[in-house]
Design goal:
Layout (H helix, E strand, L loop, with lengths): L4 H33 L3 H28 L1
Helix pairs in contact: 1-2
């Protein structure tokens, strides 16, 4: 089966987005874990903020991925 350049680019872009989603979700889970383990309030808040930012990023990536499907 032959694909034109546009189709190949879309498949590649969807793959990159999928990988970015997986990596961001993993990082988000780590930030949640570090936040739970932290004893210092500032450190706990930092990791919670990072987790929220990564959650927003995952939502953005999923929205972009929906454009390719």
């Amino acid at each position: 089966m032959q694909h034109n350049k546009t189709e190949i680019k879309q498949m590649f872009d969807a793959g990159v987005l999928s990988r970015s989603i997986i990596e961001s979700e993993t990082s988000m889970k780590k930030c949640n874990m570090f936040s739970e383990m932290a004893e210092d309030k500032e450190v706990k808040a930092f990791f919670k903020d990072q987790s929220k930012a990564l959650d927003a990023l995952v939502d953005f990536f999923k929205g972009r991925l929906a454009d390719y499907n």
